## 1
Amino acid sequence: MFSRIQEDIQCVFARDPAAQSVFEVITTYPGFHAVLIHRLSHGLWRRGLHWPARYVSFLGRWLTGIEIHPGARIGRRFFIDHGMGVVIGETAVIGDDCTLYHGVTLGGTSWNKGKRHPTLKNGVVIGAGAKVLGPIEIGEGARVGSNSVVVKPVPDGVTVVGIPAHIIDGKAKQEKARRDATAQKIGFDAYGATDMPDPIANAINLMLDHIHQMDKQIETMCQKLNDAGIQCGEKNMPQLDDCQIKDKT
């Protein structure tokens, strides 16, 4: 029992650089408190004491803002960072060394009895606000991006993002890097142009793609003119600062 508590404390230091002391973790970390309370409520649940288990779980939610059903099975060194708004359903199974951030839901998609919540293998990390729904399996070492909605199984060791979540492959990474470079070139902060299905974000991404194609065409035209003996001068693109942007808006 005490060895498990020591593991829970040490995993906080391993994954949160803000942790300063054991006393601080024990007294001020709601994720640590939620895990301790779940260990108690789960023990009662396994002994058939369902109402006491649910009541202990209810007290844990009231104290920490984290709702873990006493029937959920949680492995070793489980860390909930920040924690507020985390919901873990009855038939969820969480392996060792998993990390959840605030606002994560491990939920179901059916009212039928039986297995209806996700299974997380060892070393899974789920970003803030993500929803993992249904009796699906998240592979070992997988990463789920913030605010993603996962409704299909995820293979080992991959990263998924978006709604619905999809695997980030090499092509997607290259496309994002190209868009970021184009945005930086024109002085635009592309932080808001995420993979979310936001019509404004989609419009911005299309605009960046269009600008990239225009740059390529202009570069080709200048090369052809230079080859024909017609001087095509190159000018640096002016950078936009915050004051210019505010004046124009």
## 2
Amino acid sequence: MAEERKTVVYVTREIERALGMAPNGDYLIVASKTPYGETVKKLHPDSITLIDNGKNGLLGTADLLGHQITKDLIYGLRSEASGSPAILVFKNTLRVESAASANGWQLLNPKSFLAERVENKLSQVRWLGSIGTKYLPAHAAKVSKLITWKNNPFVVQWAHGHTGEGTILVRTRDDLNALQAKFPERMARLTSYIVGPSFTVNAVVSKDRILMGNISYQITGMPPFTDNEFSTVGNDWGLARKLLSGADMRSVQDMVREIGAKLQLEGWRGLFGVDVIRDDKSKRMFLIEVNARQPASATFESHLQEEARKGGARGVTTFEAHMRALLGLPIDQDIIEIQDGAQIVQRVTKGIQGIFDDAVAPLERSGYQVIAYQNAASNADLLRVQSAASIMEDHGSFNAKGKEITEVIKTSKINIQV
């Protein structure tokens, strides 16, 4: 029996988030207009709509959903057989959900209240329950002013924050005093400080399966890519295969299966992400957090999987599994394994605050895929550099490719200081 075809429209501020599969007649993209978006549109002119907001900056997802161009497109796609197309976004929020609901559109993403419950660093502990007890490092929740110094460093996380922005390492009593003076009434999640490499894995929940993608080493806090020691700036799938033992991988698989099963029970469908860290002392794998949304690395992982499939690999890409799960379609193949590949993101820092053509051109000549963003906020994405091969030699150290990328960025004329 043939599968029922359903048109899906992915609406996103950054077009790169939607490129986990090629746009086509049944998969359309609406995004804010950027130079990179215009380049992609030339390849798929009939499947991509770019909305220009002029000098007012890029439109967010909710604003794109409310734009007349988006409404005209979606109403024009309505048919008697299948009704309006389904809407997909990178991350569902109450505002996005309300914008879709106001127009009577079906939003494929899981409900925003469930995403918030799982992503919020405080409610996440309650939601995890026994899973958290089993896999999280020692942790507690306290109002900032009631935290006491016990002569050991610890990590403070606020309820919200992404790419490490809401994470603070308290090393001394003075660090704690300063934090309490600034945010005395704010509720925080406190976690034991663990030293070691961190990893991330994308996984998919369908109606009857939990599918795990490929584990990547999480490139974190490395200059000049960020000023924040806890900010994730990239992924290296090749290094993860070198650093992780079979026992490590089985530990991650167990975590993913248990978290996925809990999400599945509560009606979650599609992608989620799990971040873990391996303690240098005990060699034990600990859960860092669960990301209840499409992780940013899923797009490039899927590209690497498509390249592997051209070489004979069998299975579905991570993004294909995401789409099929959201549409309620069966997934009868596993996610494609990849052996190598990496990406790194230059974020807005004190010394690097703009897009730089003198960095893009040499990186592209060296064979890297380069995506430029139009962001100005501190720690926002500026440049994404993607490589078919690993860029890391070891935990915290670049190989020749990584050093090449770093040197190009450091010598870019736009830099204020590095």
## 3
Amino acid sequence: MKLSLRWLGDHVDLAGLDPGEIAHELTMKTALVERVERLGAGLEKVRVGAVVHREKHPNADRLSFCRVDAGDGVVEVVCGAPNVAAGQKIAYAPVGCTLPNGVTLEARRIRGVLSHGMICSPTELGLGEDADGILVLPADAPVGRPLAEALGLDDAVLEIDNKSVTHRADLWGHRGFARELAAIFGRELRPLAVDTTLRADPAEFPIQLDDPVGCPLYLALRVELGELPATPAWMARRLGAIGMRPIGLLVDLSNYVMLDVGQPTHPFDEETLSGRRVVVRRAAAGERITTLDGQSRLLSAEELVIADGARAVAIAGVMGGSETEVRAGTRRLLLESASFEAPRVRRSAARLGLRTEAVARFEKGLDLALPEQAVRRYAHLLRSLAPGVRIDSGFAAAGAAPPVSPTLSLRPARARLKLGYDLSDDEMVRRLQSVGFEVRRDGAELRVAVPTFRSRRDVTGEDDLIEEVGRLAGYDRVPSVLPRLVARPPARVAARRVEREAVLAFVRECAFSETAGYSFATDRQIELYDAAAADAAPARFVRLVNSLTTDATRLRRSLVPGLLEAVAKNLVEHADVRLVETGREYLAERSGGEEGLPQERSVLAAVRALRGADPESLLLDLRADVEVALGRMRVGWEGRLPQEELPPFAHPGRAIEIAVTAEGGGIAVAGLLAELHPELARRFAIADPCAVGVLDLGRLAVLPRPAVRMRPIPNLPPARRDIAVEAPDDRTIAEVERDIRAAGGEPLALVELFDVFRGGKIAPGHRSLAFRLEYRAPDRTLTDADVDRLHARVVEQLARRGVRLRG
């Protein structure tokens, strides 16, 4: 949004104020000013001149020799423009002037004649593209006056951040910001010049309101046109300065009024209205309209339209239709000024993909007093610019929407407490009155009447009044005082601690990348992950009342589908993919009976995929990663064959259940590791070996943990032996490890699996397991005999358990 300071000056005296100071004060007290653009920069020394004599250059056919009166004497200038002539008012740049294009002028001889300065073209002044001729000024331009002042270019444009005025419908016109500046700088807000002779007369033109909710008030002014003058230069310059292209007087005046007071209006060619009447109604399903941008648009029954006796002629609050627009031959004008329901306008604009200046204002909820003010302002300006027009003595009006002006209470003592500094009651009254509030004292309180232009979804309570007082008084008056806070350490949350410990173990020690997925599941994820249960999905999932997208209407039951999608994408570029994620899974099954809430489960999910890997080895690698994480949490665990129903991601024959010792000595299941089910790998387009692990963080968080005890670093060397055994498939690795530790006793300090092998000479239904063992005594170095004896005991124990030493 852009504001012209010259335009604002029509409403409030800004003399003596620098544009930078104005921008700063507006930013601090009203709205963010993003940029200040000073118009006419580079034209400071260019003046209005008069060509008092012109003749052909004595030595060049295409050059002219001119004498120019620049207000301080006559100078001789050589000019190459074909349109220069005696008697013209022109833009004269004297010697020493630097033009906007960077050229600094000096006296120089041109074909033997000394030229002092330049008669400028629009291009040389940065005012247009015409480089073939000089800029000819109006005949009444005063000689010697600075050109920027004469052309109205001594202006600055403030660019306002739209987001900072979204809640302030009164600030979408120059009048609203002028009111703010009057309050900020203690200046008087000038009365708005309007036509006070008009009266409301429903008989002036037939208006039918079929949807009074969508349009509570509709006004129409009739004007009989004669020969219209062009848009005056001052108005065209103001419109152009804030980015609006001048079109013609009637349309430009409508735009000018909108940018002036903030109320959009729309001019119709009355003679193109079938039946010479206006109907405000909902569009018929399938109805079409060609809008002013030339696009044919299909309307829905939700759109509010302005219609005549036959068809829709405008989309209410959005854009008019091309069939009824005013043209050069328009003889009768019907000016619309109305109030439209803000949400309706916003939805229509979004459905049709139309963003207009009118939409930007109507969707904010405009003051119900504005439509009449805009009609009177338009009539006043039109009479002054085109005295030959005939304006009806009254304007047609339909609807009854009296502006609302509520009265609120303000407690000065509470305002001082909220603002944090001392502010007198009198200053509070003065600040509120400066922006249009009416205030009267009522004992210890102030009774404040909110003006109509601030009463719609803006100032609705006491805190809003305190904000008004605070911003106008200046938040920089709040003293800089350190807050008095009692520093207390945050409560330790076991689940959060376990989650971070696990993630850090995977990321720092196992080279995983942490991901963060959405908490909802897409239809595609549900279909791919558990196709057999897709039909029952509505009952199994927690549904979202207001989903972000149409294909993600349910909360996720598992973190795994999102991770598998990420793995499939990453495998395109990387051969080794390691991803870990923590979050919540949401189960539709209720907790605490029928009235209970859906269950939430805090989970860690980890996935490893490696191109060309052995699937079983990859699963064991993931098992080692989980072992690192659980070790970091000081959780004792054991891998065993699954005893509970497997989730969809798990391979039925290659899964490891993670069993932990719960409080009280019982065994609890805290997670599952598995090779990815082949069918699931196919659905998610994962062609490489993949292993998945899931840990129940909620269950791990409540497990008893052994106290951390410091052990001295051993100062005696270990004795290392490797052992390869052939174990039946029904014997888990954890069971074999447990047998080895039991046989080795205290001197056995380390048992580490480093290889799994099938095939070759290994009997069917068996696999080879290779372990690295370390033996160490706390008080002496073990001899070979000691180690042989301990190792033999391990071999004997394994043999008794059906696990024999490989030859």
## 4
Amino acid sequence: MSFDRAIRAGVRRLFRLPVRTRDLARADADAELDAFLEERIDYLVQRGMTPAEARVEAIHRLGGSPDDAQAILRQSAVHRERRLRIQDAIDDLRADTGFALRALRRSPGWTAVALLTIALGVGATTTTFGVADALLLRPITYPGASRVYVVRREVAVGKQNTGAPISLDGVREWRNARTIEAAEPFHSGEASLGLGPDTVTVQVGIVGRGFLAFAGAHPVIGRNFTADEMVLHGPAVILLSESFWRRQYGGSRDVLGKVVHIDSMPVTIVGVVPASLALPDLTRAKPDVWAPLAPEPGDMVQSVAVRLTPGVSPEAATAELAAIVARSQIDSSWWRDLHPQLRLIRPQDRLGFRHALTMLIGAVVLLMLVASTNVAHLLLARATARQRELAIRYALGAGRRRLLRQLITESVILAMMGGALAVFVGWTGLHLLTSTRPASLVALSYVTTHRGTLAFTSILAIAIGLSIGVISGLRSAQDDLAETLRVSAPTGSRTGRRLRSGLVIGEVALSAMLLVGALILIHAVVNLQRMPLGFDARGLYTVSFWFRPNEAQASRLAFATALQEKGARIPGAEGVTMAAGLPIGFRALAAAFETAEHPGVSGKLGAADINLVAPDYFSVMGMRLIAGRTFDPGSVVNHEVIISQTLARLLWPNGAAIGHRFRNVRPPRGMGDSVEAWQTVIGVAPDIVDDLLEGSAPPEVYRPLGSDELYRAALVVRLQGKNAPSRLAQFAKSVEANQSRTEIENVRGQVARGMEEPRFTTLVLVVLAVLGVLLAAVGLFGVISYSVGQRTREIGVRMTFGATRARIARLVVGEGIVLALCGIALGLVGAVSATRLIQHVLPNVSRFDPVSLGAGAIVLLGVSLAACIVPMMRATGVDPVIAVRAE
């Protein structure tokens, strides 16, 4: 049954007449028919007909069949009763709605707190739902999206897995596999796009001709790639994304046929694809430009998107595709020896933000529980305060069902108004998340607002209001309303007070879990940022120049030498050196080292960072060698290297490394099957922490410039001052070089980017924790205020018999502090248990952090004490004469 048919059936069941009412309507119709026949027969008999003739004539006037007339009258009576029932329900709903709005308007403070609570709780949940929906539930909108996987081949390198290439010849063979419907290889990367005198960096998606059909997309204007554009040296064309087209060209159709330059190569724009089109890789930004995949023979790609045949499991598809690769022998011997493993991965499974998102979803669930508890407490307190009003209405004839319906109506209206505010809060939260996200969290750029978010918010808000309204309404309607009319009867029962106290304890406990979790993250992030890096990052910058593939190695070395000489003349430069890679963040290479003392023993595959550096690299970086010396002019010929302390301990755990020799038995691809020359260690450098989250230093090998091919020249400059980036940008523009693109990096900023994700996660969690603490404080304030209001006579009696105001203050504050301490104790236990989620984001977090636990308890205790101040002042300001006058 479709959704709309189910809704219509539910409405019909809602207004279906009860059996007794339907039978009474039919009985009334039968009585009406009998009365009509009797009256008609009597009339005709008076006109001279016999009774038999009169009956026949009366039936004839009805249409000839009393059964048909009876059926028509019965149906008409049932319809009439149903219309009256619907009209009565609408009238009652209108009356209940008007009464509810007037009741909410009479208590503006209470209404504002309740609306704000619902808006914050549901709004935060809406924001998280929008992120989870875009990244976890529906990350791609391809046809058969649940059957779309990304095929990757991975090799275990040290503690991590690195990608191995996939042959395009193998992809063509995969298309004949039984377990998949289609296979589309893809690349992605960055390029420089020339727009007149200006150049912008764009994301480029490189795909085959069938990719658009695979993704279910059609060009907005223009056309797809043609067959002759998919071959090597074919016409150079591109497609633009709709968002880039509208941003750069204002949506003009004249863009078709325009020639632009990508990395100085002329290309023609032939079409525009929808903005929703994206690669099935959430770790990369959506492409601005789409280019055809025109491979050379034997070319490889890193990823392939496949759609499984319906009913086929990923395991079965993996087995068949791996068998095709093994049977075809399309791998080089270099990759076959590494034994890469084939994996089918869903697009959302590659999210590095996945564990952090899961933790934030748990935090939002806690906040939603705090908000729901707060609303339940507010409604219970309000219903208790209205017991006398409900009792009077009950005495005047309103039934319990009528009172219950009124209370539920008020709750639903409150929830709908709060839900309307929650839509604004949720969409604002999504906008803030996407606009303030760090550059490393590319996945958040896929998050957008859509109508599904509005439907989710509405359903959640109404469900909360309905459920809480039913619970509080049932409790209020089931009380002894007649007893409430007594003047001296209290307006709250002991059970009700216990329930409200329990809700407040639950609020404080949930808030404690949020707050302590945020404090643990803050403490861990601060500790990581204090971790020594192994070099001095203050004022350190790199200016990188990427070379074209066809440029000669001698020309590259000459440019690097000239670049360092020009860099030394940068005003204010305190040190300038040259390297092939950045100080941190360059990709680890597969390596298996053996030493001259133990040949072949260290054949286990690991990872090592290999960099080409100038002799003064270590002095400019602020790295004093632990042992040995730096490079000299003969270091290239003598195959001399400097290694990190970690690698020295790995290869020679029981002795000094200086003067010893080693080599990599897994040389980089491109050297064929030749064995690398023996390298002589002339120095040991300090370890560089490459990843603050892991806190480990990978093995490093430093080789002299000229010992290997240069793909990039990275000028390392130590330059102080706020205008350092602008000075370096001017320097980069002044350099005449045949480089494809230039990048300027702040090394300290690069280190900080490694912490962007945990810092952003911490910020979001802190916001949620602050909201939770505020909601808990509002709940505690409400229950203490209510308690003071209910105990006004008791306080007056105590003061009449000699109780001081200080003692009354201790009595009120003590009640609040007891509730807060109970909640804090439960919350701390829950926070320790929930630390496992935080350890997925920051692995080095301790399960038990006494500083964060103690700080969280103190903050919550202080907030709880502040929440008790106003009720305490009300209690100590009670006039005992007025308080006991009613007695």
